[in-house]
Amino acid sequence: MKGEPRELKIKVNGMLYELKVKPNVLLSDVLRKDLKLTGTKRGCLESTCGVCTVILDGKAVRSCSILALQANGHEVTTIEGLAQGNKLHPIQQAFIDHGAIECGFCIPGRVMVAKALLDENPHPTREEVRLAMQGVLCADVGYVKQIEAVEIAAEKMRGGE
Amino acid sequence: MKDFEYFAPKTVEEVLSLLSQHKEEAKIIAGGQSMLVVMRQGLLAPEYVVDIKGITALDYINYDEREGLRIGALTTHQAIEKSQLIQKHFRVLSEMERNLATIQTRNWGTIGGNLCHGDPAGDPALVLIALDAKLKLKSLSRERIVAMEGFSKDMLEVDLEPDEMLVEIQVPTPRRHTGVAHEKLMVMQGDAGIVGAAVSLTLKPGDGVCEDARVVVSNAASVPLRVKEAEKRLIGKVINDHLLTEAGEIASAEADPPSDVHASSEYRKEMVKVFVKRVALKALERAKEG
Hints:
The complex is a heterodimer of chains A (about 160) and B (about 290).
Chain A: E1 6-12, E2 15-21, H1 27-34, E3 53-56, E4 59-62, E5 75-77, H2 90-97, H3 107-120, H4 126-133, H5 143-158
Parallel strand pairs in A: 1-5
Antiparallel strand pairs in A: 1-2, 3-4, 3-5
Helix pairs in contact in A: 2-5, 4-5
Chain B: E1 5-7, H1 12-22, E2 26-29, H2 35-40, E3 48-51, E4 61-64, E5 68-72, H3 77-82, H4 84-89, H5 91-98, H6 103-108, H7 111-117, H8 123-130, E6 134-138, E7 143-147, H9 148-151, E8 152-154, E9 157-158, E10 165-171, E11 178-184, E12 196-203, E13 210-218, E14 225-226, H10 228-234, H11 241-254, H12 265-289
Parallel strand pairs in B: 1-3, 2-3
Antiparallel strand pairs in B: 4-5, 5-10, 6-7, 6-10, 8-9, 11-12, 12-13, 13-14
Helix pairs in contact in B: 5-8, 10-11, 11-12
């Protein structure tokens, strides 16, 4: 039947969830409304700004541009899944230490893009970092410090910290 | 977004049977990177959505020198960009995918979804026309192979019957001494092109006379525009700077681009001239290399 909720099994930040979700609901809405993981932001809702970026099966994707049911059986990591207890992920820490956070709205999306990049490529060139970060728009124009922060984090992560 | 009934079939046969059952009321979603935008805008409100993203049997890249390249419709843009087979034998496809959109879109969006969306600003159609690619379409009762060139019918309209789906993209191995290139005008890398051009040139070994040419431009009409008059200007001649300028001028004259917030029609026409020449020059250099 039209609009009838369907079963969604999804692993988010290591936890398995079983939900009932209407077909026209976006992945970003399930994360924010059903799972209360509001770190993932909603921005433009038209695949432009990238602030809703999460990691799905190891790859950065826009959670506002995927139906929640399309993530059935998949594994999602959100910004809430990065810190280990009170210890922030090196990318998060580098953003703070380097003063790369201004208003903060785009930062969760940006950190997720950076994490997907560094997981796949621990030695990115400046150009590669720049290209990946282009997938998230920042209204504060803090791009340079953000790119530098990713490079600092990459170095720390390579050092095994 | 309006309500719809959702199906997530696991095989191509199941998809085809759903399409034959629901026809015009059903719409296939693959990565949905274009489709969800138009659904949210209310431009598209299907009764039934058939989600094919999970059909892994349509996610493949195969290459054989005689058979050419075969890409499954559900291969992601990122997989095409990174494929070593494609980087080695069809570098223009990898280059095109790298600039197609941001990394998030390329990670989830599929080549088949992009082609079936039928956006005249799209890059894959352009490059695949330059490469003389074919598409394999399937319905329950038949299978047909069509040229990429005629697949786009109008703005967001393609040559697909309501009960048909695109399953494979077939790209022939280019003849020797062929060079293919693609570039588009972007404000930021990964933007949709304000205009774009793809050119394929084949030279005769020895004297370097142009034996075959394909010139295609994006966002210059309601479908990807192949400019045969520009090709004719190049075929049978030793290509020089002057001929390339003329080819650009012919393409520009034939272009009837839209005016929108990104660029005026006049500016797009001017840029068609610039990009056809620029891309043809690159294709020419590549053709000379082998």
